[in-house]
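Exercise 7. Given the encoded structure of a 292-residue chain, write a plausible sequence.
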C-alpha cells in the first residue's frame, strides 16, 4: 500500500468524523460484507425515557422510587431514565444497600430492609418470579410497540412493570439502505428482548435480528460469521460491545461510548455520524483502488 494515499484518505475520513487507528483498518473496511449493529445507543439515541408503568401492588410512585433507588449506582441508560423520571415526579428516593448488578439482566438491592430487584424477562425468570395475567399482557403490548420492559419485585414477588422507549436515530434507516446499496448486509444484535428488537429492526429495514445477546454472545456471533468466511464489521457504543469490537475485522466504536468500547475498536466514529459508515466504506474502496 502506498502510504501517501492512505494518509490522504485518513484526512478525508477525519473530516467525516472517523478516526482510523491503523492503516490496515481502512483496507479491511473496503472489503466488509456484513456489519453487525448494536441497538441501544448505536442505532437508537440511547436516551430512553419511562413511557408507561404498571403497579400491581402499591402505587406507581412507590414502584418508581424503589426502582430509582436500586438503579442509583448504575451507568446504564435505562437506569438513568428511571432516575430522571423519579426526579421529574419529585419523588424522594430512598437509600439502597447491597447493590448488585447482573450485566444484560438488571439490578438488586436492599431497600427499606426488603430485597428489591428490577430487570428484564431473563433476569426475572432466573429468579423464579411469577407474572400474573395483567403483567404479561401489559409487557407484551409495550414490547410489540418496540419498548423495553423491566419487571420489578419485592422479596421475589412481582410488583410491577416499567416500559421504556428509545427513539431510533433519524439517519439510521438511511444508513442501513446506503449500506445495502454498497452490498453490505446490516444485522442487529442487542441485549434487548426479542419483541422490541424485532420492532426496531423492522423500522430500520434490517431482516436479521439477534436479541437477548450477552457481551459474549455478540463476540460469538462475530466469530461464527468469520468462520463462515464473512468479512465482518461491528458497530457498538458500550463496554458490552468491546469483545465483539475487538474480534471483528473492523470494530467501529461510536464516539460517545465508554472507554472500553473506544479502545477496543479499530475505528472511532463520532456518535451522531452514523452515515459516516457508508461514506467511509466508499472512501476506503476508492483508496484501495488507487493504491493498486
Ligand atoms: P444493548 O445491547 O441493548 O446495549 P445491554 O447489554 O446494555 O444492551 O443491556 C441488555 C439488557 O439488560 C437491557 O435491555 C435490559 O433489559 C437489561 N439491563 C441492563 N442493565 C440494566 C439495569 N441497570 N437495569 C435494568 N435492566 C438492565
Ligand atoms: Mg449499546
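Solution.
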Amino acid at each position: 500500500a502506498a502510504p501517501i494515499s492512505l494518509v490522504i484518505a485518513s484526512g478525508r475520513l477525519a473530516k467525516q468524523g472517523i478516526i482510523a487507528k491503523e492503516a490496515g483498518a481502512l483496507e479491511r473496511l473496503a472489503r466488509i460484507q456484513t456489519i453487525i449493529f448494536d441497538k441501544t445507543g448505536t442505532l437508537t439515541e440511547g436516551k430512553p425515557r419511562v413511557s408507561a408503568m404498571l403497579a400491581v401492588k402499591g402505587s406507581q410512585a412507590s414502584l418508581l422510587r424503589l426502582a430509582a433507588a436500586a438503579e442509583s449506582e448504575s451507568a446504564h441508560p435505562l437506569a438513568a431514565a428511571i432516575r430522571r423520571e423519579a426526579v421529574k415526579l419529585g419523588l424522594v428516593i430512598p437509600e439502597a444497600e447491597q447493590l448488585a448488578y447482573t450485566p444484560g439482566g438488571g439490578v438488586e438491592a436492599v431497600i427499606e430492609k426488603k430485597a428489591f430487584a428490577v430487570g428484564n424477562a431473563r433476569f426475572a425468570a432466573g429468579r423464579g418470579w411469577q407474572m400474573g395475567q395483567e403483567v404479561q399482557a401489559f409487557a407484551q403490548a409495550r414490547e410489540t410497540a418496540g419498548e423495553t420492559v423491566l419487571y420489578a419485585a419485592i422479596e421475589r414477588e412481582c410488583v410491577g412493570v416499567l416500559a421504556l422507549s428509545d427513539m431510533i436515530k433519524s439517519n439510521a434507516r438511511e444508513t442501513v439502505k446506503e449500506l445495502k446499496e454498497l452490498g453490505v448486509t446490516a444485522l442487529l444484535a442487542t441485549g434487548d428482548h426479542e419483541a422490541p428488537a424485532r420492532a426496531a429492526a423492522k423500522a430500520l429495514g434490517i431482516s436479521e435480528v439477534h436479541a437477548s445477546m450477552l457481551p459474549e454472545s455478540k463476540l460469538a456471533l462475530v466469530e461464527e460469521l468469520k468462520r463462515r468466511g464473512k468479512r465482518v464489521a461491528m458497530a457498538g457504543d458500550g463496554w458490552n460491545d468491546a469483545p465483539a469490537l475487538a474480534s471483528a475485522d473492523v470494530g467501529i466504536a461510536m464516539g460517545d461510548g465508554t472507554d472500553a468500547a473506544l479502545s477496543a475498536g479499530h475505528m472511532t466514529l463520532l456518535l451522531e455520524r452514523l452515515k459516516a459508515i457508508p461514506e467511509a466504506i466508499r472512501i476506503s474502496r476508492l483508496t484501495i483502488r488507487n493504491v493498486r
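Remark. The chain has a mean pLDDT of 91. Students should compare their own answers with the one above.
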